[in-house]
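= Protein in question =
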Amino acid sequence: MRKLQIEAAEIVRSAIQEELARSEESRYDHRLHGLLLLAAGHSCRDVAGLFGEDDTTVQRWVRRFERGGLGALRERKRTGRPRTLSVQQWNELQADLLKTPQECGLTAALWDGPSLAKHVRCRFGLELSVRQCQRIFRELSLSLRNGAQSAA
């Protein structure tokens, strides 16, 4: 039997990680799956690599489990500023970034912080700084230029 492969695996991986981040239950399930792999003999480093997490994050899951059992893996109250873009806007923005800036009505030849800031302002009426837009590129784990995608 031939090995099955997913086309555009990095894009799919980013999409799945984004989906996991959307709900407390999915993050809890994510941690449970990580612990299952650890219980099956995989190392924290292996699990972290498979799950797109840092080694210390997986180690933190283990410590939380050891201190408080399964309940300790549940989501804690999150602090910090909520996202400026709604989930729907975020999805629309991801789809837009698959296109060239020209296809989105911009004059820029390449996607960069300033062109993304302008696009978000025109499309959603939101003001994001160039730095915030650069973080969006990094969060998507993609280098987006001319609508072409590659792993960052």
